[in-house]
TrEMBL record:
NCBIfam families in the cross-refs: NAMPUrTaseMurU
Organism, scientific name: Piscirickettsia litoralis
Entry-linked InterPro entries: GlmU-like, MurU, NTP_transferase_dom, Nucleotide-diphossugar_trans
PANTHER family per the UniProt record, alphabetical: N-ACETYLMURAMATE ALPHA-1-PHOSPHATE URIDYLYLTRANSFERASE, NUCLEOTIDYL TRANSFERASE
Domain of life: Bacteria
Stored Pfam families: NTP_transferase
Keywords of this entry: Nucleotidyltransferase, Transferase
Protein name (database record): Nucleotidyl transferase domain-containing protein
SUPFAM superfamilies attached to this UniProt entry: Nucleotide-diphospho-sugar transferases
Boundaries of every Nucleotidyl transferase domain copy: 4-228
């Protein structure tokens, strides 16, 4: 079974302006290489060589820059959105290009996460066919300073909704990393329109159909110019891994 990966790259990058007025965010340069190329290479190094990229804003620039993926040792297909469909609609639009179980990666993150372990998790998830088996698997990380409240909780390997107020000592909120595995069945009856994939989380979480893991290594969301510059400086000082 071939597991494909999808890199989400259709965003306008409003918070990264003015840099993204002329360059799509995934093509912003970091130490001589574009941000999205680091994600492609990490996937290929893990043995994931079939990659789908959704494009919308300056789509032709991304397609021209990355091509068919041969120079990365990959096969790249593009899911073109005439109007941006957000994360959820973008995935729904790309489903015909994806495997029955597939990996999702945001293009604007920096991480040393081991995608080979995620490939094994995807193969395992794909083999589970019981009615109560998991439909998705999320990678969570520590909350960054600009998102201290977190997104979700992880308990006994299951994703839980973040609770308000005082929590049990053993349970703390974590931040979604932008890395996940989904089965196509997760998107059954999902509309082909603009929406965030997080809107589909509630029911599978309630049914115990979303598992997760906690990544303790390097992870950064490169969403604003200040974080981009901080990453460039960290790389120059070799305080993070290239």
């Amino acid at each position: 079974m071939t597991i494909k990966a999808m890199i989400l790259a259709a965003g306008r990058g409003e918070r990264m302006r003015p840099l993204t007025d002329t360059t799509p965010k995934p093509l912003l340069d970091i130490a001589g290489k574009s941000l999205i190329e680091y994600r492609i290479e990490a996937l290929v190094d893990a043995g994931i060589r079939h990659i789908v990229i959704n494009v919308s804003y300056q789509a032709e620039r991304l397609i021209e820059a990355l091509g068919d993926g041969k120079r990365y040792g990959a096969t790249i297909e593009y899911s073109v959105e005439s109007e941006r469909l957000e994360t959820g609609g973008g995935i729904v639009n790309a489903l015909p290009l994806l495997s029955d179980c597939f990996i999702i990666v945001n293009s604007d993150i920096w991480t040393d996460f081991d995608f080979s372990s995620l490939l094994q998790q995807a193969l395992k998830l794909n083999s589970e066919e019981s009615p109560n088996s998991a439909l998705a698997h999320l990678v969570l990380v520590d909350n960054p300073p600009y998102h201290s409240e977190g997104d979700l909780e992880l308990k006994n390997g299951l994703i839980c909704k973040k609770r308000q107020g005082k929590r049990e000592n053993s349970v703390t909120s974590l931040t979604y990393s932008g890395i996940a595995i989904y089965k196509k069945a997760f998107f059954l009856n999902a509309p082909l329109e603009a929406f965030r994939v997080t809107k589909l989380w509630d029911e599978p979480i309630a049914l115990g159909q979303m598992t997760g893991e906690y990544h303790t290594g390097q992870w950064r969301d490169i969403g604003v110019p200040e974080r981009l510059e901080a990453l460039r400086e960290a790389l120059a000082k070799r305080t993070v891994l290239a």
